[in-house]
Design brief:
Strand content: 15-25%
Pfam family, one: Methyltransf_11
Number of helices: 10
Protein name: Methyltransferase family protein
Shape: globular
CATH architecture: 3-Layer(aba) Sandwich
Radius of gyration: 18 Å
Distance between the termini: 36 Å
CATH topology: Rossmann fold
Number of strands: 7
Keywords: Methyltransferase, Transferase
CATH superfamily: Vaccinia Virus protein VP39
Organism: Halopolyspora algeriensis
Number of domains: 1
GO molecular function, one term: S-adenosylmethionine-dependent methyltransferase activity
Structural class: alpha/beta
C-alpha cells in the first residue's frame, strides 16, 4: 500500500487554496518556462497531484488529452466538478483519476508530459514516483517538476523557518543525480486584498511564521521563487 502524505494546506482549506492558486504566478513566468521545455499543444498530458484540478483547464485548451491524478478523493471530486464547467471540446479532452504518484493509472509509454507542481516530488523519497513517471512517458517525453525555491527570499526564508531540517542543497543534489536540469523561475503572487494574502499565509505556515510573513509583506504582492526541474526520457538505447 503506497503511503500518501497529506497536504497540509489544500486538503484542509481548499477554498483558501483556490485563492492562493489564483494569486500565484501572476506574471505567467512559470507557464512560459514550462512551455519552453515542453509545449504540450496536441500532446497527452498527466498532472500528478492535481489537487482540485486548478491547472487542468489551461492544459485542456491545447493538449490532445489531459489526465489529472489525485490521491485524495474529496479533491478529485472537486477537480471533476471543475472539468464539468469546461466547454464541450475541452471537457472531452480532460479527466480525473484517483491514484497516488507511485501507481499512476496509465499505460506504459502513453503520455508526452508528466507535470507535477508543488506535489509529491520534493527530493529524497520520491524515487517510486520518478520510476512511475518514466514508465508512462513515451520516448522523448518530459517529466517537469515545479517546486518552491527555499533559497529565494522572502518566501524561502519563511519555509526554512518552518522546516529547519530541510536542506536545499541535498534536494538539488538529489535531482542532479537523477538526471534533471533545474532552472530558477521568479514570479509574483498578487492578491486582491489583504485578507486574502493573510489567509493564504495562514495555511502555508505555522502561526508564528505566518505572523512574521504578514508583517514582512505590507502590500498585495509577494515575490516568490521556484525551481523548474526537467528530465526527458531517452528516445533510444543508451550504449
Amino acid at each position: 500500500m503506497e503511503r500518501v502524505r497529506p497536504s497540509p494546506n489544500i486538503w484542509h482549506w481548499p477554498e483558501i487554496y483556490e485563492i492562493e492558486n489564483r494569486a500565484q504566478d501572476s506574471t505567467g513566468a512559470l507557464w512560459r518556462a514550462l512551455r519552453e521545455h515542453c509545449d504540450w499543444a496536441g500532446l497527452d498530458v498527466v498532472d500528478v497531484g492535481c489537487g482540485d484540478g486548478f491547472h487542468l483547464p489551461l492544459f485542456a485548451v491545447t493538449a490532445r488529452t489531459v489526465v489529472g491524478v489525485e490521491p485524495h478523493p474529496p479533491l478529485a471530486r472537486r477537480a471533476r466538478r471543475r472539468i464539468e464547467s469546461l466547454p464541450r471540446y475541452e471537457k472531452a479532452a480532460a479527466e480525473v483519476r484517483v491514484a497516488p504518484a507511485q501507481r499512476l493509472p496509465l499505460a506504459d509509454a502513453s503520455v508526452d508530459l508528466v507535470h507535477a507542481r508543488t506535489a509529491y516530488f520534493f527530493g529524497p523519497g520520491c524515487e517510486p514516483g520518478l520510476a512511475e513517471a518514466e514508465r508512462v512517458l513515451r520516448p522523448g517525453g518530459t517529466l517537469a517538476i515545479i517546486d518552491l525555491d527555499a533559497t529565494c527570499p522572502p518566501y524561502g526564508g519563511w519555509m526554512r523557518a518552518d522546516m529547519p531540517h530541510y536542506d536545499p542543497d541535498t534536494v538539488e543534489t538529489f535531482f542532479e543525480r537523477h538526471g534533471f536540469h533545474s532552472t530558477s523561475v521568479d514570479t509574483l503572487w498578487r492578491f486582491h486584498d489583504r485578507a486574502s494574502l493573510e489567509a493564504v499565509l495562514g495555511i502555508e505556515f505555522s502561526a508564528e511564521v505566518a505572523r512574521r510573513a504578514v508583517a514582512e509583506s505590507p502590500g498585495l504582492t509577494l515575490p516568490v521563487g521556484y525551481r523548474l526541474r526537467v528530465r526527458t526520457r531517452p528516445t533510444g538505447l543508451l550504449l
